[in-house]
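dude i think i finally got it to work??
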Amino acid sequence: TLAFRTAAHIDSCVFIFYKMEYVDADDDSVEEPSMIQHLLEFLSRFSFISSFINAQSRRLSRVIKKFWKKYGFKWNYYICWTSYLCAVTLLGGGAIRSFNSSIDMTDCLFLASSAVTGTGLSTVAMTSLSRGSIYTLLFCFVLGNSILLLLPAMIYRRHAYRQLTFKIAACDEATAIEYRNLYNAIGACIIVIISYLIIWHLCGVLFLYAALHMHSSEEELSARGYSMFENALFTTFSAHSNAGFTISSNSLFYLQDNPTAYLIIALVILSGNTAFPVFCRYYVRFITWMLGVFGRTEYIPRFAYIAGEQCVVGMDVLIWLCNCCCFTS
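look at this
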């Protein structure tokens, strides 16, 4: 492409300079050809370069497209998911390594993968990690949260239902209405999941921060420069993602005399793990009730559609299965 543009540019320059060197035919005086005229005449002999390069580039483009279509790399659900996890792990491990150069890169990658997948295993002491590495682990919790990772699949599925609605609206109105209901229901699910995550994380941080103030702060954390708010923030995100990491080196032993904090952390753990479908269903019913209280009845069917006990797109079924079949159809 660059060679083609260069050749085309030469052709245009030849034409422009030739016009500039135009000699009036009525003029009786005959001048000797200038050096520029000789140069332009020489370059004009190679004007075929542009057409040749253009033809070859088009032929090469067709060959590349044909080869890529047959043997090329094709994105699908499995490749996207694997690439995302590998990318987050590599970036997280690289960030931890940049903050703690004394830690081996293998340990950094293991920490990042453990945080992303919620394994909770560590090959290094938490006391050896800097503040930057601690916050890197926190971001890995968020990017690997199993509830948050439902959103890309649901967004794609919603887009697919929208396209299907437009395609069959003219020939099958009943099916188009069903797809439109599914489109609205998944949109409601997306709103529910985003608000669900925000509410649990925000309330978890605030309530745990208040519970930590009931007792004296952990001496180890104070010596390392971490405040109670940072402790509450990291513990809440780790508990909701079921990562099992804590800033303290002795896990949560320092909270053994603080049952209020235990209860809050236990609820946060349940909200992000096995009790998620139950909590989320009750949250949907609460939203439906609030819409009726504030008179926004036009939005109630969207949320009621995903909260019905006998509905094929019930909240627990839709959220988990939509993630497994998002790239089908």
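Residues 1-27, 308-329 have pLDDT under 50 and may be disordered.
im so relieved honestly
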